[in-house]
Amino acid sequence: MGLSNHRQSMRSNNFIMVAFIACVLLMTGCSGKSSSELKALNPYAQATLTPGTGLGDLQLGKTTLGWFVQNIGSGTISVIAGDETAIELSFLNGEVSFLFVISSSCQNETDAPGKRLDLGQDIKSFLSRYPGCNDLPLSSLSVATQQSSQADTFFKGSTDRGVRLWSPKSDAYQHGAELNHAGQLVAGEDQQRENLGRLEFPVGIYLYYSEGEGATPEEVQSGAPLSPERIREIEASAREAAKNAVIKRMTIFMPNR
User: Fold this and answer.
1) Which candidate, 14, 190, 16, 12, places its Cα nearest to that of 88?
2) Is the dihedral of CA 236, 238, 243, 245 positive or negative?
3) Record's superkingdom (predicted)?
4) Which domain holds residue 162?
5) Does 218 share its domain with 162?
6) 168 partner at 20 to 30 Å CA-CA among 13, 64, 66, 149?
7) Residues 165 and 238 in one domain
8) How many separate domains does the chain show?
9) Quick check: 44 pLDDT over 60?
């Protein structure tokens, strides 16, 4: 498999995602780390992540965007456009992300179907202008580590099968036999800072593991062939990562949404 195809395997071939980032002006800038939001998220740091269901009382298909913004916050806002359009709210530099797929009724209410959703800088103002969008249900949520150690990682809970961030890749198979379905639009994939492989398991969970250095975004976008020396560097990095591959991101979603 070519390097560009390998990188694309991280995402669905059915989605070409373009994220339009609108940073909310928080007390600490655009990092999504306001003290009130951290306080609201803290109860979930040790919660159980259940595939296809949720994280603690944050329930897929039930928790609404309006409730979430009112009770948790808005973090850093992204609008992700592809075969579907979604609002993603991310916190802690992408360690925790929540995705709300835009319904046709919400998009029609904004009077901009098929166009970029105009959230501006204030999602509360957006929801006030378009109250029907308050009812968008939580479609996916993702927890990850962007840190160099488990101790510094925000989420220290586990899945319902006991898999944690920083667990060995082999622990992922506590969730059963690996699936090979077409990818879905899920939370967190635009927040990744390193090259990760992805495993899918039944009921709605992706587990991502370290794969080594990989080609840089610039190398992928250029489309130019990599030099033999660069290919050897990437292959050596992948072999080293495979020796001690660990889980770096865990994402749940509603299958067959």
Assistant:
1) 190
2) positive
3) Bacteria
4) 144-253
5) yes
6) 13
7) yes
8) 2
9) yes
